[in-house]
């Protein structure tokens, strides 16, 4: 099957700065894909190249098999991008904006689909409101609607839920999941790692223009061994016998890294011997956030070893 997105040795420089460092990436059709990374990692640069807004310095990128430069129109038609920045045309109403956007893709009589999008994004009541009169969250919803007017098989959402309230977030994800189950490929960048973990089945992590992890969400999250044991104790300090244990203080809790469940018994018996009582105990499985933080730490250590400054 043709991959939804295929990127080969793709690089982008801004002067001396390497925003993308010869990356290879294949996103299968039908995936719900998370593109993660800290600020400045290169996510938006990659998206801009795919959307034809930025020219790569070298390498190739294809959307549904169409080269984003040589076959720009075909590639662009297959892609819907929700940009990170709130850009909108202040002169038009919500509905007019969507009709005009449909026109860019040569689509006439798009009313039924526009109504459906407006409904799912809870914008029906604002259909005749001027775009400039919308709240920030509503403007973001309009951007999402604009990206969907031509029913693109590949949808890229760059931080789509920034500034969107909890209720709408839920209904937005339901809609996006519905589109994914109908066969649309979804690529999501977000700093809300919980959202990415719940929704996406594959993930790439970018750091300083390089892909430092690429795997299924399940494999990536379970690549980290061990658990976090959180303890609230009657004493502020850990007993001497536990001082060397990998741990940190988080509010009232001591957060301890343990390898396996047998460690729990060891820790509890040390506490009992030291006459320290446990007021609250929580055991946390590794999650995407733990893995992400570790990956960022490892990448920094590798950079230091290679003499790269952060
Ligand atoms: N037009 C530009 N001119 C110069 N440098 C740029 C330009 N656009 C991006 N950069 C730089 O390229 C690097 C990658 O930026 P990019 O916006 O792709 O990161 P990002 O992963 O999307 O970050 P964020 O999570 O903050 O959105 C950054 O160091 C940024 O400063």
UniProtKB/TrEMBL annotation:
SMART domains recorded: AAA
Q: Which InterPro entries match?
A: AAA+_ATPase (IPR003593), ABC_transporter-like_ATP-bd (IPR003439), ABC_transporter-like_CS (IPR017871), ABC_transporter_ATP-binding (IPR050763), P-loop_NTPase (IPR027417)
* Pfam families xref list: ABC_tran (PF00005)
The record's PANTHER family line, in alphabetical order, gives:
ABC TRANSPORTER ATP-BINDING PROTEIN, ABC-TYPE MULTIDRUG TRANSPORT SYSTEM, ATPASE COMPONENT
Q: What is the protein's given name?
A: Putative ABC transporter ATP-binding protein
Q: Which domain of life is it from?
A: Bacteria
- Domain ABC transporter, chain residue ranges per copy: 5-233
Q: Where is the chain membrane-spanning? A: none
């Amino acid at each position: 099957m043709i991959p939804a997105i295929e990127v080969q040795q793709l690089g982008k420089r801004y002067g001396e700065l390497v925003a993308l460092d010869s990356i290879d990436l294949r996103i299968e059709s039908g995936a719900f894909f998370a593109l993660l990374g800290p600020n400045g990692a290169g996510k938006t640069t990659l998206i801009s190249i795919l959307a034809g807004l930025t020219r790569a310095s070298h390498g190739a990128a294809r959307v549904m098999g169409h080269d984003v430069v040589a076959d720009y129109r075909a590639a662009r038609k297959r892609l819907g991008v929700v940009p990170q920045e709130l850009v909108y045309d202040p002169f038009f109403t919500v509905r007019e904006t969507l009709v005009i956007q449909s026109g860019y893709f040569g689509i006439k009589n798009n009313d039924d689909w526009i109504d459906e999008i407006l409904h799912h994004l809870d914008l029906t009541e604002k259909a005749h409101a001027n775009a400039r009169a919308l709240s920030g969250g509503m403007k973001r919803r309009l951007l999402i609607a604009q990206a969907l007017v031509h029913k693109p098989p590949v949808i890229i959402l760059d931080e789509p839920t920034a500034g969107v309230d909890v209720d709408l977030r839920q209904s937005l994800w339901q809609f996006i999941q519905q589109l994914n189950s109908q066969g649309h490929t979804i690529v999501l960048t977000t700093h809300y790692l919980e959202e990415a973990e719940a929704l996406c089945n594959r993930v790439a992590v970018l750091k300083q223009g390089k892909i430092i992890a690429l795997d299924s969400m399940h494999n990536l999250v379970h690549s980290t061994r061990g658990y976090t044991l959180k303890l609230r104790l009657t004493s502020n300090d850990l007993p001497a016998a536990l001082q060397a244990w990998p741990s940190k203080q988080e509010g009232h809790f001591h957060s301890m890294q343990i390898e396996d469940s047998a460690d729990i018994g060891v820790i509890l018996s040390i506490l009992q011997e030291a006459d320290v009582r446990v007021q609250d105990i929580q055991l946390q499985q590794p999650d995407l956030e733990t893995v992400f933080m570790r990956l960022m730490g490892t990448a920094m250590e590798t950079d230091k070893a290679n003499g790269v400054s952060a």
